[in-house]
Structures are given as structure tokens and as C-alpha cells.
Design goal:
By secondary structure, the protein is α/β, with parallel strands linked by helices. It contains 13 helices and 17 strands. The protein has a six-stranded mixed sheet with strand order 2-3-1-4-5-6, with helices on both faces. Helix 12 links the parallel strand 16 and strand 17.
Length: 472
């Protein structure tokens, strides 16, 4: 087992910055904003060929109410899971009553704990560190997480507690026959704020893994969670809600939206969650369109369905039929994330959409479908000449990309491309995933070819042509 290291402390002491430093990533959002991190965020770090798991947590104040109380619970769970704890304090703020309360709690837990005095740059260490010795920890490690100062000495001391693991052997992530990686199918749950994304994540996991609170914008970062269900591996991605651009004012929220869009690009399957009580709004359609443009397999989930009256349900179903025609390939589920109704049915659609998005496509089969489609509905004439589509082959997965070769393919109209996409999807039974068509125009082998005959060869050709005309 890899050692698990939890980062705890007051809000805005640099936990997420240190997390990014240890994982050599930018996975955790960082800003000069107290309370930015709310959920436990896991990452894998490597320090001098020593591997470990690091957990970023929300800040603890000791006076938590409302959503802050849920954040504190997440931090406490991280401490319980940890093999060692890095307790971060802020040298610029000095020792506070909250620091003393956290230190007392950590001593009660009896976990190996290292006091990390962060933001030491520009200060006299002797003065800045004096008060923190009162906390009674064995070692005190001054650091500047933003620049990496003191981090190496800290990690060498922390990792001394744990036995040497086997040497790291670099190995690439292998794919099985269906294209599924060792990490499992990556499922991004996206939607507007307060539609129940985090509630759905907890319901699918069977535990309170992420913070749930009746307040829009509870989730600020994208949280990746690996798990296994019925022998199948999955990675759930809980994302921040995406509001209309005109309603986004905070810089932090803008970064959260960027992380959500990155999660869509990184996912294999996107579950778009909508609030049945609010019906279908334009922002839902914009998010759905982005997922389709990104080429992701799609499952639509209508949440809070159990709270609607029969006439409201009929109205929502009518809206779905009218406004979701452009994603007719996606399954639609009516669920209650809070009570679990219909949540288990999502997995069948997820597996089917993923299988369709990563299926191997045969060149012979694709070409035969293309020939039948062209025979049933030929391409239009362009400048008096018919567009010719000769053969097709696979060009990629997730989404399935079909490359069609022919002549004048740059003039194929959009409506004919949509016709081909629908034809391929129905013939190949690619349910739950968009299909992309790419064209390749066959080059004229004589185009741009210059006359390379020598003067003697030209004279010989003229004599031959003259001789032929004389015979006629």
C-alpha cells in the first residue's frame, strides 16, 4: 500500500498549492480566496522515486456552520484515512487559536504529524517560527509551497516513516479490446448549479464522498473518484455548475467553469443532469451542445422527477421531444438522485454508449454502408459534376471518426454530411455517441505536373504526329 498523506489546516494557508507541488500538476484550484477547496481531492505524488497518495482538504476554522460544517467533515475523513498528516500554518498570520485547536485534535488522533510553516519567504525565520514551537510538535518545517522552498527536506523526513516500495517501472496505460483503460470508464457529471450533481455522485458511490449543500456553487473544483461496481471499473468526475456567462462575475467561478469544460474533454461519457422542476433551459442545451462538439458519449438524466405532478411530467416529456432532437442518439433517464430512484439504470446506458464510442469499425463494412447510402441518396451536383464518394475507413474512437475518400469532397453540403452521420449511426447501431465524418479528396496525379521532355524528345514527337497525319 502506498502511504497516504493528508494536508490540513486553516483556510488559505497554501494546502492546494502544496498539493499541486507534490503531484506536479495543476489539478487543484489555487487562488487568494479563503475556503476555495471544499471536497477531498486525491492525487499521486512521486518524490525521488518514492510514490505516495496526497489528499487536499478544505480549511478548518473550528466554528463551522452550514456548508463549512460539511467541508470540515471531509477534512476529518481525510485525517482518518491518512498514514501521516501535514499540518500547515501561515507564517504571515502567526499562531492563531484555530491552529491550536487543530493541533489539539491531531494529537488526539495519534497520527504521525508534521508541522509545516508555510509562506516563510521574506520573513526572518527566527521571529516567524518562534510562536509555532508552542504547539509541541517534534519538528517544524519552514516552506514556501509556491516556490518549493523547504519542500524537499519536508518530504524526505515524511517518507522516512514508510518502508521502501518496489522500484517504479515506467509502463504505459494499456487498453483492453474495447479501448477501456486501466482506470476505467471516465464519467463526467455536468449541469447547471444546484441540479443535484454532487448528490448523484454520492448516490452512485454509496457514500458521502463529496460535499452536498442546498446552495448553488457548492462544488468549485473537478473531483476525480475511482471505484468499482459489479466488476467494472469507473472514474466519476464531479464538476462545478456552469451558469450563463453574464451571471459569472467571480474569477474563482470562471476557473471552475474552465475545469468543468476540461473534465468534459477528458471524460469518456458525459451525464448531463437537468432539474425536472425547472424544465429545460437554454443553458442545458448549451452544455449539451458542448459535449456533442467535444465528441463525448452522452447520457441525459432528468433529476428530481419524483417531485413532479403528472401534468408537469407530461409537459417536460413534450419539451424533451421537441428540444433534444439534435441528441436523439442519447438515452434519457428520469431519476431521483436523493432517493436513488432510477440511478442504477444509468450504468446500462453508460456501458452501451462507451462501447459504441470505442467500437472497432471495419473498412469493408463502412465502405458497404457508404455505397448503399450513396445509391439511396446520391450527393448533389457541383459545377455540373457529381460529387463522388468512393470508400470509407475508421479514423478514430470516442467519438467514432469515419474518413470518406472521394472527389470534390470539400463541396459536400452540411445536410448531406448529417444524412451520412445518421446512416452510419443507424447501420452500425452506435447508440449514445455522436459520429464525426471527415473527408479526403483524392489528388489528381497529373495536377501541377510540368512538361519534362527534352528538345530532342519534343522534335521526335512532332515528327511522329506529322507522320500519323500524313497516313490519314
Amino acid at each position: 500500500m502506498l502511504p497516504v498523506i493528508a494536508l490540513v489546516g486553516r483556510p488559505n494557508v497554501g494546502k492546494s498549492t502544496l498539493f499541486n507541488r507534490l503531484t506536479r500538476s495543476r489539478d487543484a484550484l489555487v487562488a487568494n480566496y479563503a475556503g476555495l477547496t471544499r471536497d477531498r481531492k486525491y492525487g499521486e505524488g512521486v518524490w525521488h522515486e518514492r510514490r505516495f497518495v496526497v489528499i487536499d482538504t478544505g480549511g478548518i476554522t473550528g466554528e463551522e456552520e452550514g456548508i463549512d460544517s460539511a467541508m470540515a467533515e471531509q477534512s476529518m475523513q481525510a485525517i482518518e484515512e491518512a498514514s501521516a498528516v501535514l499540518f500547515l500554518v501561515d507564517c504571515r498570520d502567526g499562531l492563531t487559536a484555530t491552529d491550536e485547536a487543530i493541533a489539539s485534535y491531531l494529537r488526539e488522533k495519534g497520527k504521525p504529524c508534521f508541522l509545516v510553516a508555510n509562506k516563510i519567504d521574506g520573513l526572518d525565520p527566527n521571529v516567524a517560527l518562534a510562536d509555532f514551537y508552542r504547539l509541541g510538535f517534534d519538528g517544524l518545517y519552514p516552506t514556501t509551497a509556491t516556490h518549493g522552498r523547504g519542500v524537499s527536506a519536508l518530504m524526505e523526513r515524511v517518507l522516512e516513516l514508510f518502508p521502501e516500495p518496489p522500484a517504479i517501472e515506467p509502463e504505459e496505460e494499456e487498453e483492453d479490446e474495447g479501448g477501456e483503460t486501466e482506470r476505467g470508464i471516465k464519467i463526467a457529471i455536468v449541469g447547471r448549479p444546484n441540479v443535484g450533481k454532487s448528490t448523484l455522485v454520492n448516490r452512485m458511490l454509496g457514500e458521502d464522498r463529496v460535499v452536498v449543500y442546498d446552495q448553488p456553487g457548492t462544488t468549485r473544483d473537478s473531483i476525480y473518484i475511482d471505484y468499482e461496481r459489479h466488476g467494472n471499473k469507473y472514474t466519476l468526475i464531479d464538476t462545478a455548475g456552469v451558469r450563463r456567462r453574464k451571471n459569472v462575475h467571480l474569477t474563482v467561478e470562471k476557473f471552475s467553469i474552465v475545469k468543468t469544460l476540461q473534465a468534459i474533454d477528458d471524460a469518456n461519457v458525459v451525464i448531463l443532469l437537468m432539474d425536472a422542476s425547472e424544465g429545460i433551459v437554454d443553458q442545458d442545451l448549451h452544455l449539451m451542445g458542448y459535449a456533442v462538439e467535444a465528441g463525448r458519449a452522452l447520457v441525459v438524466a432528468i433529476n428530481k422527477w419524483d417531485g413532479l405532478e403528472p401534468e408537469q411530467r407530461e409537459y417536460v416529456k413534450t419539451q424533451l421531444q421537441r428540444r433534444l432532437r439534435f441528441v436523439s442518439f442519447a438515452d434519457i433517464h428520469f431519476i431521483s438522485a436523493l432517493h436513488g430512484t432510477g440511478v442504477g439504470d444509468l450504468y446500462k446506458s453508460i456501458r452501451r454508449a462507451y462501447a459504441a464510442a470505442t467500437d472497432k469499425l471495419s473498412t469493408n463494412v463502412l465502405t458497404r454502408i457508404l455505397e448503399d447510402a450513396v445509391a439511396d441518396h446520391p450527393p448533389p451536383l457541383v459545377r455540373g459534376r457529381r460529387i463522388k464518394l468512393r470508400y470509407a475507413h475508421a479514423g478514430g474512437k470516442n467519438p467514432p471518426i469515419i474518413v470518406i475518400h472521394g472527389t470534390q469532397t470539400d463541396a459536400v453540403p452540411d445536410h448531406y454530411t448529417r444524412y451520412l452521420e445518421k446512416t452510419f449511426r443507424e447501420a452500425l447501431k452506435l447508440h449514445g455517441t455522436p459520429v464525426r465524418i471527415e473527408y479526403r479528396t483524392s489528388e489528381n496525379p497529373y495536377a501541377g505536373r510540368k512538361n519534362t521532355l527534352t528538345p530532342r524528345q519534343l522534335a521526335k514527337r512532332k515528327r511522329l504526329m506529322k507522320h500519323i497525319k500524313g497516313k490519314k
